[in-house]
Amino acid sequence: MSDPFHQRLHHVAAAGLSGDTAQTSGMRRVEAISGKTVGSRNLWMGQTHVAAHTSSGNHHHGESETAIYVVSGHPSFVFLDPERGEIRIDTGPGDYVYVPPWVPHREENPDPGTEAVVVISRTTQEAIVVNVSHLEWRGPATA
C-alpha cells in the first residue's frame, strides 16, 4: 500500500483518552480519535462530561459539523432561535443531536446527582472550540 495511514487500524482504549484538547468552562472534553492521537485527516471523536447540576459556557465549533450521541444522563442543548428565543433540546441515553457549523450553543446538565456523558464526532480532525459570551449567531467572522 502506498498510503501508510490505511495500513492498520488504531485502537484507543478508554484509559488512553486525552484531555489535551480545547476546553469550555463547565465541561470536560477528552479526545480519542484525532490527528494527534491516530493521524486522522478529516475526523475528530471524543467524549464530553458535564458534571451534575452544571452548565457549560457558550461556544461553537467553527466550520465543523458536530454529531452528539448521549451515553448517560439527561443533558440539554441550548441554542438561540432569532424568532423564538432560547430553545432547549432535552435528551437522554440513546439520543442524537446534530450541531451545524458556527451555531453557538451550550450544554446543561440539570440533574442534581448524575454526570452527563456524550460521544462527539466532528468533521474536522481537531476539536475546534470557540468560546463566546453570547448565543447570538454572528457568522463565521466571530471565529
From TrEMBL:
SUPFAM superfamilies: RmlC-like cupins
Domain Cupin type-2: 49-118
One of the Pfam families matching this protein, by short name: Cupin_2
Domain of life: Bacteria
Signal peptide interval: none
Protein name from the UniProt record: RmlC-like cupin family protein
Source species: Catenuloplanes atrovinosus
